[in-house]
Specification:
Helix content: 55-70%
Largest sheet: 2 strands, antiparallel
Number of helices: 5
Strand content: 5-15%
Radius of gyration: 20 Å
CATH architecture of the largest domain: Orthogonal Bundle
CATH topology of the largest domain: Arc Repressor Mutant, subunit A
Distance between the termini: 33 Å
Number of strands: 2
Strand order of the largest sheet: 1-2
Number of domains: 2
CATH superfamily of the largest domain: Winged helix-like DNA-binding domain superfamily/Winged helix DNA-binding domain
Shape: elongated
CATH class of the largest domain: Mainly Alpha
Length: 108
């Protein structure tokens, strides 16, 4: 729900019971997932108020949005050049590899 942007930063997450019912799982399963997400910094528990999407989730969401936009641009260019998807993917993987081989000062 967070990665699909159904829940935004600062927004309350559904209660354990409601989410368990909606997903058809036990409340213990949702509770365990919430605890894992809290430990990862994606959710924040506020005593007496509920569980909320943290600001850290915004950073992940922003990164996903930027990557999606870059991927769409890359795909448009590859398609314009008539490159099949496997060739475009190979070039992307190769470029990613070349970046990791460059000195840190060049990457910045």
């Amino acid at each position: 729900m967070i990665s699909s942007r159904a829940l935004r930063c600062g927004q309350a997450a559904p209660s354990v019971r409601k989410l368990a019912e909606a997903l058809g799982v036990t409340p213990a399963t949702v509770d365990r997932a919430y605890r894992d997400l809290i430990a990862a910094g994606v959710l924040v528990a506020k005593r007496g108020r509920g569980t909320f999407v943290s600001e850290r989730a915004r950073t992940n969401s922003d990164r996903e949005t930027a990557l999606e936009e870059a991927a769409i641009h890359f795909a448009e260019v590859a398609r314009t050049l008539g490159a099949p998807i496997d060739e475009a993917n190979s070039e992307l993987v190769a470029a990613y590899g070349r970046l990791s081989e460059e000195p840190a000062s060049v990457q910045a």
